[in-house]
Predict the structure.
Amino acid sequence: MEKFFKLREHGTTFQREIFAGLTTFLTMAYILAVNPEMLGSIGKGMTPGAVFTATVISSAIATLVMALAANLPVALAPGMGLNAFFTYTVVIGMKYSWQIALTAVFLEGILFVILSFFNVREAIVKAIPANLKKAVSVGIGLFIALIGFGNAGIIIGNEATLVSLGDLTTGKALLALIGLVIIIVLYANKVPGSILIGILATTLIGIPLGVTSIPENFSPLSLPAAPLFFKFDFSSVLSFEFFTVFFTFLFVDIFDTVGTLVGVSTQAGLINKNGDIPRVKQALLADAIGTVAGAALGTSTVTSYVESTAGVAAGGRTGLTSASTAFFFIVALFLSPLFLLVPTAATAPALILVGFLMMKAVTDIDFSDPTEGIPAFLTIVIMPFAYSIAEGIVYGLLSYVILKTLTGKFRDITIVTWILFVIFILRFFIK
């Protein structure tokens, strides 16, 4: 383990990496409930049980590839947002069958594998200016803090003001606040595994509060259902509508993954002096392989998860964190009732704390130069406001190119950045 993952070189230990992997798993385990419920609602042969199995296996495969090939503490699973686009836009809205939607995901994954081998995606990562990379980390911090506040019911929707405070005196919001106090106190006192301890303690406290629900005749063991193997339909691949679906999957996955890798690597202190992510080619390949595997098993696009930052905050620095997360995914195949006992109110405090930790990068952004500071600002605020990592990168880079051009600083813009600018502009016309 020491030799393969280089634990000492990264200033970590075997025990810390395992705890970090479990922490990452617990903060993203909600996907094991959300994804089967969402895709399973389609029906017509796509059952929640089959989607659950596909979700677990594809997540484990992609995360293990990330561990062994890239040695990065990043976990992967079917992406939130992408699964909603799959279900509500492609299948329910556009009236495509889920088989055709899976075909679009499969072909997107194949293209990703090709782009990864030819270093196209790696070039995209490197083309993002240094200040924007730091802004991506900060924006993701605000984004996942918002996810945490929303999951806890601390922040709720409001037609008059867009958002407002929920009822903090009862239910999951109260439990999340208790959990947040526990995690903050443990973290401030430098208790090892503070985030994981906080999640487990909050889960237990949730039992008497009625938030942690234990079903009657509860059994922690269950046998997995069979996934939907290779259920593809290529009959519509030449239509313009199919291309639109394909392009949307492609675009969101590329920039969600790029943003997450930048954010997690910055949080873990893995970015080198040139602002580059180590072994980014292998990391992007893990994402592509996961997407192909997920489509073949019967689930939507697999992508890197921002919740990986919770594991990094717990001390994870190498692929051993990812390997242990992959292990817990496999265990979840047979212990799903046990893992699904952890309520979102227990994982929400972890996300909120990680949001705080990721704010540190804001002090390294050059706000004195408006052509650097304004794009960084837009990147940071649009991620939570638009609820999208990809959109934050888009508008940050667009504003960067426009400001640099109109102020005569052409030399700051690389060729690949110009290409991305044109692609982002064209995207507005492809609906």
